[in-house]
Design brief:
The chain is α+β, with helices and mostly antiparallel strands and 163 residues long. Helix content is 42%, strand content 20%. The chain has a three-stranded antiparallel beta sheet, with no helix packed on it. Strands 5-4-6 form a three-stranded mixed beta sheet.
């Protein structure tokens, strides 16, 4: 590994630990020439790529970043941190890799995101669900919001409708 400071390729590993639910190894290194320290991350090579089967039966490569971008859009101007978004993506990814080897349906991915997002922020959940479930009219949206309110899971949020 080349030192990012002096470009020398002689270093020693000071500390190693697993991160990202065991899928990545984080190594703390020290350059033997300049003595500065830096961190590297090692990922296992994905020889068998996971594909996502879309609604129209087309297949696209699995991309964690798409989950994160969707969550960021749903959580825009909401009190949801980048760490919480990464944590949701981690949980969704963990479910995917636990249950599927080569292909996963987009429906499984979307429902998993919705399930985890609902626990974090109800408004972001409604935003994500409205895009993912492709509500056809305001009535479907109101029905989903009413269900969240009726389940009593909307505590601490301003009331949208009176019961």
């Amino acid at each position: 590994m080349r030192c990012p400071f002096c470009k020398e390729d002689r270093d020693k590993v000071i500390d190693s630990r697993s991160s990202d639910s065991g899928r990545v190894i984080r190594r703390r290194r020290e350059c033997l020439l300049c003595g500065r320290r830096f961190t590297t991350y090692e990922k296992m090579s994905e020889s068998l790529k996971l594909s996502v089967v879309k609604k129209d039966n087309s297949r696209v490569p699995y991309d964690r970043d798409k989950i994160i971008v969707g969550l960021q859009k749903a959580c825009y101007k909401r009190p949801v941190s980048a760490g919480q978004i990464r944590e949701i993506a981690d949980r969704v990814e963990e479910e995917i890799f636990k249950n599927f080897d080569r292909e996963v349906t987009s429906a499984f991915v979307g429902e998993s995101v919705i399930r985890h997002l609902r626990d974090v922020d109800k408004v972001a959940y409604i935003r994500f669900a409205s895009v993912y479930r492709d509500f056809k009219d305001a009535g479907e949206l109101i029905e989903e919001v009413s269900q969240v309110i009726a389940e009593g899971e909307y505590e601490g949020q301003p009331k949208l409708f009176e019961r």
